[in-house]
Automatic annotation (TrEMBL):
Record PANTHER family: HISTONE-LYSINE N-METHYLTRANSFERASE SMYD (PTHR12197), HISTONE-LYSINE N-METHYLTRANSFERASE SMYD3 (PTHR12197:SF288)
Record's protein name: Histone-lysine N-methyltransferase SMYD3
Matches recorded under SUPFAM superfamilies: SET domain (SSF82199)
Keyword Methyltransferase attributed: yes
N-terminal signal peptide: none
Organism lineage string: Eukaryota, Metazoa, Chordata, Craniata, Vertebrata
Gene Ontology BP annotations: methylation
A single GO molecular function term of this UniProt record: methyltransferase activity
């Protein structure tokens, strides 16, 4: 589900079987089942009985590394966005290594193709590019592109931005190898 202005685009990222129930997440899914249920009841006045909520399949994974680990992951990107907005570059650079370590964890919580994982990979790629890790950035942008083109579509601005970022990386790599 992707919003573009006042339009909502609903895209299937896998084949859908006839009569299969389709669900849409109303809230952030990177929370424990109990917390999601409470928020849905408080905010939308219903109790969810989707497979994700009834099975509590991700709760064990979230708690296996300790609450502080998944909470840190959940809060990492907004904190980095705030540092960027404040132009607090030194602290932002110190936080980059932590963000890079979240890639595998995101893949567990948001299996591909998931738009949140694609956006997170795009952010990691931008940080790698900023830190002049051009080959790593190109690889990360490629991974993000594979997800975003499915979840957002070929014509979405993020897909176009990723194509431009990949081309920038290739150009810089060509300049480095010829210079």
């Amino acid at each position: 589900m992707v919003f573009e202005g006042t339009k909502l685009h609903l895209r299937a990222v896998r084949d859908i079987k006839p009569e299969e129930e389709l669900t849409i997440s109303y809230i952030e899914t990177l929370s424990l089942t109990e917390d999601r249920q409470r928020q849905l009841e408080d905010q939308y006045h219903f109790i969810c009985h989707c497979q994700h909520c009834d099975s509590q399949d991700k709760d064990g994974l979230m708690l296996s590394g300790g609450e502080s680990t998944w909470r840190l992951l959940k809060e990492a990107l907004p904190r980095l966005e705030a540092l960027k907005a404040e132009s607090n570059w030194q602290t932002l650079l110190q936080s980059c290594s932590h963000l890079l370590s979240t890639v595998d964890v995101y893949r567990q919580y948001y299996p591909d193709p998931h738009p949140v994982h694609g956006v997170q990979l795009m952010r990691v790629g931008k940080l790698q590019h900023y830190l002049e890790h051009i080959e790593d950035a190109l690889d990360t942008f490629k991974q993000a592109y594979q997800i975003i083109k499915l979840t957002h579509g070929d014509d979405h601005p993020m897909t176009t931005d990723l194509l431009m970022k990949m081309e920038e990386c290739r150009t810089e790599m060509d300049q480095q190898s010829s210079g």
